[in-house]
Amino acid sequence: MKFFIDTADVGEIRQALAMGVLDGVTTNPSLIAKSGRKFEEVIEEICELVPGPVSAEVVSTDVEGMWNEAQKLAKIAPNIVIKLPTTMAGIQACSRCKENDIKTNLTLCFSPSQALIVAKAGATYVSPFVGRLDDISHFGMELIEQIVTIYENYSFETQVLVASIRHPLHLVEAALAGAHVSTIPYGVIEKLLKHPLTDIGLEKFLKDWEKVPK
Ligand code: E4P
Fold first, then answer.
1. pTM greater than 0.85 (yes/no)
2. Disulfide check for 162: which of 174, 190, 197, 209 has CB 3.0–4.6 Å away?
3. Which superfamily is assigned to 2-211 in CATH?
């Protein structure tokens, strides 16, 4: 499973890069706003830092507006992926991007029927939001299992990118379901490694090492 980081904070991206496990980056308008920086400027910097795919989201809601934004963003760097909402206009813009060899990530996906259309439109990635489904008492991970099954049944090339991840178990469940990618907030990446038995074990090893004659 590929690991993307879900942030527009360049400091967090650098930390994840230093771990050597980072395959790409996803951003959204809320994350860009949180960075306090200009959209194109921060996307450009992220694309220079990370060789893998970098998702940059359009804010237009009509097809022409999305297409214009997509063309502009695609010129920033070869690793740009255009993030489009899973709406009628988003699907049309996705088909146009596909015809023009521009990579896409269809975001705000909350149902298997949406994911099916996204794959038919030739999207590179579909982003189902597990955390936001859990928030309204739906089992977000069930959606991932359904999409993975549907895509496998028909050998669709669209990759399942699990989004809105809130804790390490989301990631484990996404991996068990066979999702291609998970996009993870930096705080969750840190938690993935944490285990009290690792800390206790290391402390004991180091204490015992002091008793070894030097
Ligand atoms: C990523 O592509 C999504 O925009 C993101 O994972 C949404 O996460 P949230 O539901 O925690 O805002």
1. yes
2. 174
3. Aldolase class I (3.20.20.70)
